[in-house]
Amino acid sequence: MHVVYPAVVSALLFSIGVYGVLARRNTILVLMSVELMLNAVNLNLVAFDVWLRDRLHGGQVLTLFVIVIAAAEVGLGLAIILALYRNRRTVDLDRLRALAEPAPGDGAASPAPGRETAARAEETP
């Protein structure tokens, strides 16, 4: 088998992943695009490991490490997205750029329980 075929498929997968990261606004789709890029790297590692006939199979071992890191990245990323959704009620990347809490008039999320009484106290004359 020629090494060109997996390399071309890997380049296509990586390109699709880069496009997904740059063009998408949904954080879950961005995470899926990052996973696509990691899978393209894994395909390259295994293809070149087979092509070079490495006795220690370094490319395949490194692929296993990448898979483990990718699984941890997915778990942590989804936990962060879930926490953001609970606070902001959106997973749109454009609306998540600011680190400040959304203003009460935005309608993105209700204020925290401790802040409701403070906001009502300020409104009363």
TrEMBL record:
<protein>
    <recommendedName>
        <fullName>NADH-quinone oxidoreductase subunit K</fullName>
        <ecNumber>7.1.1.-</ecNumber>
    </recommendedName>
</protein>
<dbReference type="Pfam" id="PF00420">
    <property type="entry name" value="Oxidored_q2"/>
</dbReference>
<dbReference type="GO" id="GO:0042773">
    <property type="term" value="P:ATP synthesis coupled electron transport"/>
</dbReference>
<keyword id="KW-1278">Translocase</keyword>
<feature type="transmembrane region" description="Helical">
    <location>
        <begin position="64"/>
        <end position="85"/>
    </location>
</feature>
<dbReference type="GO" id="GO:0048038">
    <property type="term" value="F:quinone binding"/>
</dbReference>
<keyword id="KW-0812">Transmembrane</keyword>
<keyword id="KW-1003">Cell membrane</keyword>
<dbReference type="InterPro" id="IPR039428">
    <property type="entry name" value="NUOK/Mnh_C1-like"/>
</dbReference>
<dbReference type="GO" id="GO:0030964">
    <property type="term" value="C:NADH dehydrogenase complex"/>
</dbReference>
<dbReference type="GO" id="GO:0005886">
    <property type="term" value="C:plasma membrane"/>
</dbReference>
<keyword id="KW-0874">Quinone</keyword>
<dbReference type="InterPro" id="IPR001133">
    <property type="entry name" value="NADH_UbQ_OxRdtase_chain4L/K"/>
</dbReference>
<comment type="function">
    <text>NDH-1 shuttles electrons from NADH, via FMN and iron-sulfur (Fe-S) centers, to quinones in the respiratory chain. The immediate electron acceptor for the enzyme in this species is believed to be a menaquinone. Couples the redox reaction to proton translocation (for every two electrons transferred, four hydrogen ions are translocated across the cytoplasmic membrane), and thus conserves the redox energy in a proton gradient.</text>
</comment>
<keyword id="KW-0520">NAD</keyword>
<keyword id="KW-1133">Transmembrane helix</keyword>
<comment type="similarity">
    <text>Belongs to the complex I subunit 4L family.</text>
</comment>
<feature type="region of interest" description="Disordered">
    <location>
        <begin position="101"/>
        <end position="125"/>
    </location>
</feature>
<feature type="transmembrane region" description="Helical">
    <location>
        <begin position="6"/>
        <end position="22"/>
    </location>
</feature>
<dbReference type="GO" id="GO:0050136">
    <property type="term" value="F:NADH dehydrogenase (quinone) (non-electrogenic) activity"/>
</dbReference>
<comment type="subunit">
    <text>NDH-1 is composed of 14 different subunits. Subunits NuoA, H, J, K, L, M, N constitute the membrane sector of the complex.</text>
</comment>
<feature type="compositionally biased region" description="Low complexity">
    <location>
        <begin position="102"/>
        <end position="114"/>
    </location>
</feature>
<feature type="transmembrane region" description="Helical">
    <location>
        <begin position="29"/>
        <end position="52"/>
    </location>
</feature>
<keyword id="KW-0472">Membrane</keyword>
<keyword id="KW-0813">Transport</keyword>
